[in-house]
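Researcher: Re-running this chain for the archive, since the previous output was lost when a drive failed. Same request as before.
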Amino acid sequence: MSTRTGPQHYPGANRDHWYQDDFGGARMEVNVVVLHTTEGRSLPGYGGGASAPNLTAVPDFAAKKLKWYQHFDIDISSRALVNRPGGVETNTLNVCQLELVGTCDPRLHSTWQTNGRMHVYWPKAPQWALADVARFLAWMHTHHDVPLRGPSLWPAYPKSAGNGGGQRMSGARWNDFRGVCGHMHVPENEHGDPGAIDFERLMQLARG
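Model: Regenerated structure tokens:
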């Protein structure tokens, strides 16, 4: 699908780290948002864009808000998913990808907390962080018709790695999916992010 409708830039997002000119993706009509966590505390370099998502949300703790960076148009495929040869499409299957700076790993969270390193532990994200993600999802629903629904299983990391929580979609289910899911739900991928993010609360905020 090559038609692109709706606004292509999220309002207020910084485009200083723009990778579309170097890694022009496939044109598509987005109907899925995939949530990732970066497992770091700052904006990643993404290998110069080779593994970048469409957008990254970086916590600003002083302002209690997320700072948004956009790397590709909404309806252009980005590069944060594994796509194995001979299987289903992942990055190019009408997917907008959002990386959330922080962690879903309880061990990493504990280490950072012990060392006094400010971060968002997304399974216990502060209300302001969830609300900002919800605002983006509501915008995607309004302007790109992404349904405000998703999988029922959001197991905690590390159980979510591979398919430890039974959450990974089959190829057929992935092809049919419309809505919001995590990296841990996408076939051909082994990552377990974003773990046990409060998806029910995220949907309540986005619908509200």
